[in-house]
Amino acid sequence: MKLTEVTVHELLMRMKTPFATSLGTMQNKRFLVLEAKDESGIIGWGEGVAFEEPFYTEETFKTSLHMLEDFLIPALLGAELEHPDDVHERFRSIRRNNMAKAAIEGAVWDIYAQLMKKPLAAVIGGAQEKIEVGISIGLQPTDEQLITTIQHYLDEGYKRIKVKIKPGKDIELLRTIRVNFPAIPLMADANSAYTLEDIERLKQLDQFNLMMIEQPLAHDDLIDHAILQKQIKTPICLDESINSLEDARKAIQIGSCGVINIKIARVGGISEARRIHDYCMKHHIPVWCGGMLEAGIGRAQNVALTSLANFTMPGDTAASERYWHEDIITPEVTVKDGYIAVPKQQGLGYEVNHALIEKYSVNKTTYRI
Asked: Which top CATH class is 3-118+351-368?
């Protein structure tokens, strides 16, 4: 397998509604779509999901574009690749920039799956024919709107509700939810909004029978999370703190968490995501697949990843229509009775809609050998 051409599409799409967290609010999403071609003419697709501002990680849309154009694409064009895992090895000398790495690596995995004439889920070792999905709900203007929104997604069959919290919008918010929905699977995502000084407040979460609290403390912390986990019953799920297999190993070893959220983009691609999955499975740590407000290509990769055996908790890979008026794949990702069927078509399992790529494109650049 040898890449002979890579086109970087810069897209701008507007989400149906604003998505608010403790880090900020977003509705317009600027992102990258990678179109890679191998020597036999097969085209593979990847998606770069870094946000325009560095509030989730240090990466941004512009830094991803810079890394791809000046380092990552040149490192792969014309290189002989036996397997997509080789991409991870070729990038080993380039530190961090995981979202940029994942964007081009995803396109290589798509090409490889097509060469194998198998679905992406099958070539990465997935066994599940359908995946259980939950929904992530941003901070809402009022409690009434929050309850209405939760009821709407429960009616659509979603298996787990995740809500964003932050100091001042946490204990009473969760109490309101539990009064209205005493038994639903519920988790809270803090996006690093707390410190150890908030331990007494965080202890109050135990009364709400949460599946987990996601990333309550600093984005790069393992030590304080281990201290906190010893003092609360609610399992801690790490998100931003886990950027590699090494991070996962250390977190599990010192007891920083009971659950790990795996995001393909955050850990640098499907190859590293698989390694983290396998390590967690060996050490009896459940995992689930988080979301980065992906469009269809990234969403398709999440579906494939979630088909691996240790993804035992509903993830954030909701239907395309949850976020977009129209998605860039055909058919769009759909949810039925709380499940997404894992596609059986080779490659991504979905066709990329070239017309919509062009419609939402604000720039594109092609690189060749």
From this structure: alpha beta
